[in-house]
């Protein structure tokens, strides 16, 4: 499932390429036909992201809510558009570009009130200006759940997925099984700050990059996958060379160094 940086990058790209245009909207697959008819010919005003959720704001007040889930994928096209590939739930055509959406978990028209209700269920997003550290602190510090599980809970922090949780805990030397209420205020502040920095880097380069250029000896734009990550799916710790441990936590496999992240 795409993590928050990917969704925010999509919001930026789609705003840049399609906002302000009267768009042609269709559902080649047919499953979104009613919604496509409602949006067809309307002007896209803006696109925003909150965590892993996208919201497209259209003229007339209609909103389109998209959550990619495990299998959702956008494909960007130049004009003229190619024949639909696979089960295309949504096709949007602008003046110069178009995009298809295949296999999303959610693709539906909603009201502004419904979008606000979705946001109310989500935790603060480090990439949004109104992200509230105090709310994060309260939710973590009052929980007996492991921090590794809390980071996957979108009502605690929105946008963090399996890779970012393993990597940020490794960077801060926090064991994934540490209960939230055992973390200090300083640790939670560092967690929020580091996630904000890493997610912003992810948006800029459109990929998760944890390693520092000075440590790898090359710029972020030239790092390969093995170089970009420090602990996720690695055999040995990039810091101490200890064998990385992995186990299921929050229904996903977490990765941790037994020496750098003591419990």
Structural class: alpha+beta
How many structural domains can be distinguished in the coordinates?
2
Largest sheet: 4 strands, antiparallel
Radius of gyration: 20 Å
CATH architecture of the largest domain: Orthogonal Bundle
Fraction of residues in β-strands? 15-25%
Name the shape in a single word.
globular
* Mean pLDDT score: 97
Distance between the termini: 29 Å
Q: Considering DSSP H and I runs of 4 or more, what fraction of the residues is helical?
A: 25-40%
Spatial order of strands in the largest sheet: 1-6-7-5
The CATH class designation of the largest domain is: Mainly Alpha
Topology-level CATH name of the largest domain: Helicase, Ruva Protein, domain 3
The helix/strand order is HEHEEEEEEEHHHHHHHEE
Count of strand segments: 10
Unreliable stretches, pLDDT < 50, 5 or more residues?
A: none
Instruction: Supply the number of helical segments.
Output: 9
Key features of this structure:
single chain; 263 residues; alpha+beta; N-terminal domain of MutM-like DNA repair proteins; Helicase, Ruva Protein, domain 3; 2 domains; four-stranded antiparallel sheet; 10 strands
Structural write-up:
The chain is of the alpha+beta class and 263 residues long. The chain has two domains: 118 residues, MutM-like, N-terminal (N-terminal domain of MutM-like DNA repair proteins); 124 residues, Helicase, Ruva Protein, domain 3 (Orthogonal Bundle). 32% of the residues lie in helices and 21% in strands. It contains nine helices and ten strands. The chain has a four-stranded antiparallel beta sheet. The chain has a four-stranded antiparallel beta sheet with strand order 2-3-4-8, with helices on both faces. The protein has a two-stranded antiparallel sheet with strand order 9-10. Helix 4 crosses helix 7. The chain starts with a helix and ends in a 7-residue tail after the last strand. The mean pLDDT is 97. It is an enzyme of class 4 (lyase). Keywords: DNA damage, DNA repair, DNA-binding, Endonuclease, Glycosidase, Hydrolase, Lyase, Metal-binding, Multifunctional enzyme, Nuclease, Zinc, Zinc-finger.
